[in-house]
Amino acid sequence: MRSADFVGEFTAAGHRSIWTGTPEIYFSKAIDNSRLVKVEDPRRNREMKQFGTALACLFLLVFTYAWQHFKAIEYGYQIESAKRELSEKTEMNHALRLEDASLRDPERIDVLARRMGLVPPEPGQVIRMDSAASDGQGPVMASAMPVEGMPGQ
Fold first, then answer.
1. If you average pLDDT over residues 75-92, what whole number do you get?
2. Are 132 and 140 in contact (CB under 8 A)?
3. Are 150 and 125 a contacting pair, CB within 8 Å?
4. Is 85 among the domain residues?
5. pLDDT above 70 (res 146)
6. What pLDDT sits at residue 128?
7. Is the model's pLDDT at 12 over the cut of 70?
8. Does pLDDT of 147 surpass 50?
9. For 126, which of 11, 15, 77, 101 is 20 to 30 Å away at the CA?
10. Whole domain around residue 91: which residue ranges?
């Protein structure tokens, strides 16, 4: 059979065979490079050192940029967290000031005191410490003397 006879014939799997000529033949040949000596090329070494240095600088620049970028994102999150915490604290402060004002309301205190059975003080029963200091007598020293006219003593 000629090689032209195989062109266009089908194989058992139904594929067309495209073999059109003589097969290529490869011969292996053992090569012994053990006697070869590598000669140092100073120009190539210098180029490789320059390339390595340039690559290291590029890596350092990229790494520094990425580090700064991620730190900026992290600081942004921290700032937003601090702002949120500040607004929460401000709202809590406002609520506590309102509660303090409502608790210090003299009318509320009067109603609670009357419920507990307290009565308003009688004349002469209240001694104001502010008026004694404003008389110009100087500092007032506390003493352990009993006060006359207090009921229950």
1. 98
2. yes
3. yes
4. yes
5. no
6. 80
7. no
8. yes
9. 101
10. 3-30+41-119
